[in-house]
Amino acid sequence: MDKRQQGKRTSKDLQLDQFRTDDRNKKLTTNQGLKMAEDEHSLTAGERGPTLMEDFHFREKMTHFDHERIPERVVHARGFAAHGEFEAYQSMEKYTKAGFLSEKGKKTPVFVRFSTVVGQKGSTDIPRDVRGFATKFYTDEGNYDLVSNNMPIFFIQDGIKFPDLVHSIKPEPHNEIPQATGAHDTFWDFVINNQETANQVMWLMSPRALPRSFRMMEGFSINTFRFVNAEGKSRFVRFKWIPVLGLHSFEWDEAQKVSGNDPDFNRRDLWMNIEMGNYPEFELGVQIIEEKDEFKFDFDILDATKFWPEEEIPVKVIGKMTLNRNVDNYFSETEQVAFHPGHVVPGIDFSNDPLLQGRLFSYTDTQLIRLGGPNFHEIPINRPVCPFHNNQRDGYNRQTINVGKVAYNKNSLADGTPAPASEEEGGYVHYQEKVEGRKVRARSESFKDHFSQARMFWNSLADFEKNHIIEAFSFEVGKVNSQEIRQGVVDMFAKVDQGLMTAVAKKINANPPKESHVKYNKKSPAVSMSNTVRKPQTRRAGIIVGEGFDGNSLGDVLDKLKEAGITADFISERQGTIKGQDGYKAEANHTFTTTHAVLYDGIIIAGGTGENTAKFKRDASEFINDTFKHYKTIGVTAGGNDLFAQSMAKEGPGVIMESGRRDFGHALVDSFAQYKHHDRKF
């Protein structure tokens, strides 16, 4: 049975059925439906003659091929997506009249696209970058798009600066180098000359910029929206996606090696887990501020460069999203999906957040060239599941066949239809906020503190996160050619923490900062990844085996891994059956050549050897060393002691030795759940 036929199908699944086609076991036709008898040779004048213009099949096939590409997104070009369903935990009618949040248990189909920001479509999944987390809810009242990132703040406060930011971080225009990274002069030149970037850059230098999986990263609305209830009462709101599996990331050295071994790592991880039934889950939380409390905080709640500390504004969890189906066609769905923060439903409205106001123009504007005009809403993946009726007509790729001769309002020939719906009938009514003031190009004084929250972020981090940031700055700014810009970064971020930039200055040959950091001692423990959930489910273990490996304990270990939802690959010098002690056999599906330690969440060393003993030991040691270096779990069976002893790894946190313990399997599962062991000593 087809995967999408299992269980209850969503309204979006049913709608998409009419657009799906399966070409298997069908006869070849042209796009006009004409069956073709031949598809290997052009129509020519004789066997060695010229191709004839009347060859309509060649012309159609080649013309379509020549026009298959569309412009990639300027940002968020590299993305991957999946279908799913959102279920509300409770009624939110007290806060919003949005129908999909109106009752406990109500389910809404969703489509989610994860992405990197800077890189082109063909770049790697694992650059140091912000990640997009865009969700399209196909609600009964129309499409609602929650267009988020995996960090709660942004680089700039006003949308008018967005082209400048993107131009600075993209490859430099004179040579189109470097790809998918901010480790170059123009980006850091922008940073030091636009110091509102300080908070976002600190998050960008943290481990959050290198997510282990799309399934293990958070999502934030960044901008401030409004909830409006049926009585017209408004409250400010920000949204947060919380991964059920916890928040986990790569080390920088690990990320670089993952990119080299599998640049599709994150998308492959998402695809494979959905195919295996390990459906990613995210809880939706909201932070709500009463209108009367708008000016209560020591930051401006409309400033997109500031996050809302969860200790001051708690997150209320209101539902859960489950991604349970992969796309059928990457281009038709993932590439053509069009998100826009202005796609809202009754009960969700906008604030005066100046970055949000800019986004409300930009997102529609960019789709016009990418998707061929104003009818991108008719592409199957973008179509709402509810009917839509208006007097818009024509344009490129129009699919709707509108009947009748009326295409305007007001009218009498069609009895005044389609007519506006009243608020009681579900018509969207903007919140009536009183707005007054002179036309100015200026920003409130409350937007001008750029360093206090960046300082709070630093104050809140665990040691391993702080060390990561030091190394990240050292790498990124170390790639900058201009000594003046290097020094500018040191001086700017000394306002966040003097010790941080003293350490960085030493590594990048810059002068240590002269000024101290801002006097701000608040902490927000919620921003530290050290406080995340840790679960073993969907972890991947690599088991190193050679001929004569220790098979006695592996049976129990494999049972414990399977029970915990951990998948395992046997890795050896060759693929196929590897014979162990006491007749135990393992099917090696990978070799030291076809995979790498960084593609696993930890390894288990079962020992044995290969035809070339020295090479086997060297290859195994490289696996062990990288796993140890990246703070991941190493399990050592009694037969694996010799291989372990020849590596650089040492006993300690996250290194589980079988010798002398009966709970080897359980201990391994607990260690895999922990994922990283940053208290490990080298």
TrEMBL record:
<dbReference type="GO" id="GO:0042744">
    <property type="term" value="P:hydrogen peroxide catabolic process"/>
</dbReference>
<keyword id="KW-0376">Hydrogen peroxide</keyword>
<feature type="binding site">
    <location>
        <position position="73"/>
    </location>
    <ligand>
        <name>heme</name>
    </ligand>
</feature>
<dbReference type="Pfam" id="PF06628">
    <property type="entry name" value="Catalase-rel"/>
</dbReference>
<dbReference type="InterPro" id="IPR029062">
    <property type="entry name" value="Class_I_gatase-like"/>
</dbReference>
<feature type="binding site">
    <location>
        <position position="113"/>
    </location>
    <ligand>
        <name>heme</name>
    </ligand>
</feature>
<dbReference type="InterPro" id="IPR043156">
    <property type="entry name" value="Catalase_clade2_helical"/>
</dbReference>
<comment type="function">
    <text>Decomposes hydrogen peroxide into water and oxygen; serves to protect cells from the toxic effects of hydrogen peroxide.</text>
</comment>
<dbReference type="InterPro" id="IPR024708">
    <property type="entry name" value="Catalase_AS"/>
</dbReference>
<dbReference type="InterPro" id="IPR002226">
    <property type="entry name" value="Catalase_haem_BS"/>
</dbReference>
<dbReference type="InterPro" id="IPR024712">
    <property type="entry name" value="Catalase_clade2"/>
</dbReference>
<feature type="binding site" description="axial binding residue">
    <location>
        <position position="363"/>
    </location>
    <ligand>
        <name>heme</name>
    </ligand>
</feature>
<keyword id="KW-0349">Heme</keyword>
<feature type="cross-link" description="3'-histidyl-3-tyrosine (His-Tyr)">
    <location>
        <begin position="340"/>
        <end position="363"/>
    </location>
</feature>
<keyword id="KW-0479">Metal-binding</keyword>
<dbReference type="GO" id="GO:0020037">
    <property type="term" value="F:heme binding"/>
</dbReference>
<protein>
    <recommendedName>
        <fullName>Catalase</fullName>
        <ecNumber>1.11.1.6</ecNumber>
    </recommendedName>
</protein>
<feature type="binding site">
    <location>
        <position position="370"/>
    </location>
    <ligand>
        <name>heme</name>
    </ligand>
</feature>
<feature type="binding site">
    <location>
        <position position="162"/>
    </location>
    <ligand>
        <name>heme</name>
    </ligand>
</feature>
<feature type="binding site">
    <location>
        <position position="359"/>
    </location>
    <ligand>
        <name>heme</name>
    </ligand>
</feature>
<keyword id="KW-0575">Peroxidase</keyword>
<dbReference type="GO" id="GO:0006979">
    <property type="term" value="P:response to oxidative stress"/>
</dbReference>
<dbReference type="InterPro" id="IPR018028">
    <property type="entry name" value="Catalase"/>
</dbReference>
<dbReference type="Pfam" id="PF00199">
    <property type="entry name" value="Catalase"/>
</dbReference>
<dbReference type="Pfam" id="PF18011">
    <property type="entry name" value="Catalase_C"/>
</dbReference>
<keyword id="KW-0560">Oxidoreductase</keyword>
<keyword id="KW-0408">Iron</keyword>
<feature type="compositionally biased region" description="Basic and acidic residues">
    <location>
        <begin position="1"/>
        <end position="26"/>
    </location>
</feature>
<dbReference type="InterPro" id="IPR020835">
    <property type="entry name" value="Catalase_sf"/>
</dbReference>
<feature type="region of interest" description="Disordered">
    <location>
        <begin position="1"/>
        <end position="46"/>
    </location>
</feature>
<dbReference type="InterPro" id="IPR011614">
    <property type="entry name" value="Catalase_core"/>
</dbReference>
<comment type="similarity">
    <text>Belongs to the catalase family. HPII subfamily.</text>
</comment>
<dbReference type="InterPro" id="IPR010582">
    <property type="entry name" value="Catalase_immune_responsive"/>
</dbReference>
<feature type="domain" description="Catalase core">
    <location>
        <begin position="29"/>
        <end position="417"/>
    </location>
</feature>
<dbReference type="GO" id="GO:0004096">
    <property type="term" value="F:catalase activity"/>
</dbReference>
<dbReference type="InterPro" id="IPR041399">
    <property type="entry name" value="Catalase_large_C"/>
</dbReference>
<dbReference type="GO" id="GO:0046872">
    <property type="term" value="F:metal ion binding"/>
</dbReference>
<feature type="active site">
    <location>
        <position position="76"/>
    </location>
</feature>
<feature type="active site">
    <location>
        <position position="149"/>
    </location>
</feature>
<dbReference type="GO" id="GO:0005829">
    <property type="term" value="C:cytosol"/>
</dbReference>
